[in-house]
Amino acid sequence: WVWTSPAFCGRRGGAARAGRPGGSPLAVLIGAGGRRAAAPRCPAPALPALPGGGRFFGAAYKIPRLKRQTVIRDVLELTDLGSKKNDQVSAFSRGMKQRACLAKTLLHDPKVLILDEPASGLDPRARIEFRELLRELQRMGKTIIVSSHILTELSTMCNTVGIIEAGKLIAAGAVEDILKGLRATRKFVVELLNASDTSRVTGLLEHLNGIQSVEADGAEVRFSFDAVDTDIAELIERFVAEKARFTSFREEMVDLETAFMTLTKGKLA
Prior knowledge:
- Helices cover 35% and strands 22% of the residues.
- By secondary structure, the chain is an alpha+beta fold.
- It folds into two domains: 26-33 and 48-180, P-loop containing nucleotide triphosphate hydrolases (Rossmann fold, 3-Layer(aba) Sandwich), CATH 3.40.50.300; 184-253, Alpha-Beta Plaits.
- It has a five-stranded mixed beta sheet. The chain has a four-stranded antiparallel beta sheet with strand order 9-10-8-11, with helices on one face. A two-stranded antiparallel sheet has the order 2-3.
- α1 packs across α2 (65-78).
- The longest helix has 16 residues, at 124-139.
- The radius of gyration is 25 Å and the shape is elongated.
């Protein structure tokens, strides 16, 4: 994959090439199995995406005339625009326009979708609805590649991520693998039922092998632990044996934004 944005994500296979540095429009892409991939862009106002332009795009994609109306109806239903089939796209909200652009792109049933900043400018509800639509397309077996600066959005929709800086791929792989690779030691937070147990818990932790640091604030204890999952399970058993009652025990996870800031150096392409 060659990409010009700081992060992208995909689901499986295929090769893609998109754009030029500086954010120019996406090119036609070649997807898995030699199929053309689709990179939706909102069309000019004179040529509505869908519904009214559905027949035009159906013909442009060379969908057989007898199947055209069925295909248009199916993609409108998939993108939750079935009730808007006779409405003007110009009157749609931004989120609905995004879905209309996607509906147009799905007419020829592409196996690969390339999305450039799909959540940009959407309100929270539209963003959630669009994300759920992408998950439905993923369940249908489509490969989806997303270019975005909204890293929190990527972490909720992607299972594979790549980070690019100055035109070079500096990290790629499963999201969880990248995040785990950045954790020199694991960090945990314990919320005790009673603050009176704090000194006993911190004393127990300070004498364990692998403990890097321990901090206490009232009934909350934070500690860094160079440990595997079996060590954590044994530690919880020790807490129970010592009758240190706690209401929560959680690991502080590295997020994608932290990973991006750690891996990049602020270089411009």
